[in-house]
Amino acid sequence: MRVDIITCLPSLIESPFAHSIIQRAIAQEKVEINIHDLRAYATNKHRQVDDAVYGGGAGMLLMIEPIARCIDALRAKVNYQEVIYMAPDGELLTQGMANQLSLQENLLILCGHYKGIDERVRAHFITREVSIGNYVLSGGELAAAVLVDSVVRLLPGVLSDSTSALTDSFQEDLIAPPAYTRPAIFRGMEVPPVLLSGHEKAIEAWRYEKALERTKERRPELGINY
């Protein structure tokens, strides 16, 4: 998979991809992540990419011209299945969306900043708008890092255990069940005996039951038929 990210603050998004699972995925050539500085596509000597909002009001807006130049230049070289804008009013990121995006070959992600981007970009260049929650960040960089992490970890061979992602929370609209590791007893707190039994079917049944209970308790909006 190839992921291109457009941002006016490249240093803000570089760190999340330099560690842990994403770093290993890049090293193993499971994913190629390219960060593009929007200011490289500005035309004035100050590398300006934002301007005041027409009609007045507080805040600055990313201009259409440098964004259009950047997207055009990238599209000339790569066929993107999705051009994504990270927006607080976009489609809420879910595990299902991450699963779907993980099947694509090329993704282009645009990070807004300040008060966002010129609406003409959203209308004519963007194919999908994604939000990571009902709140506002200073820019789309951290949200883009969240999106990329949720997608890349699903790529074949990225996780050392190929079944690990299938047991994550929100797969099949269920919260993951409780999990335990050594020691079996700590300060009188014991691991449920079924997990120590070695009986796979009994363990699977226990985990499914606990996943249902936890989902009903914590995320009833997922709509499971309990």
Question: Tags for this entry?
Answer:
9 strands; single chain; 226 residues; alpha/beta; five-stranded parallel β-sheet; Trp Operon Repressor, Chain A
Task: Report on this structure.
Helix 4 links the parallel strand 5 and strand 6. The mean pLDDT is 93. The chain folds into 2 domains: 151 residues, Alpha/beta knot, CATH 3.40.1280; 54 residues, Orthogonal Bundle (Trp Operon Repressor, Chain A), CATH 1.10.1270. It is of the alpha/beta class and 226 residues long. The chain is built from 7 helices and 9 strands; from the N terminus they run βααβββαβαβαβαββα. The strands form 3 sheets. A 5-stranded parallel β-sheet has the order 2-1-6-5-7. The chain has a two-stranded antiparallel sheet with strand order 3-4. A two-stranded antiparallel ribbon has the order 8-9.
Summarize the topology.
Blueprint: E1 2-7, H1 10-14, H2 20-27, E2 32-37, E3 50-52, E4 60-62, H3 64-75, E5 82-92, H4 95-101, E6 106-111, H5 119-124, E7 128-131, H6 141-152, E8 185-186, E9 189-190, H7 200-218
Parallel strand pairs: 1-2, 1-6, 5-6, 5-7
Antiparallel strand pairs: 3-4, 8-9
Question: What is this structure, in a nutshell?
Answer:
This protein has helices spanning 10-14, 20-27, 64-75, 95-101, 119-124, 141-152, 200-218; strands at 2-7, 32-37, 50-52, 60-62, 82-92, 106-111, 128-131, 185-186, 189-190. With 226 residues, it is of the alpha/beta class.
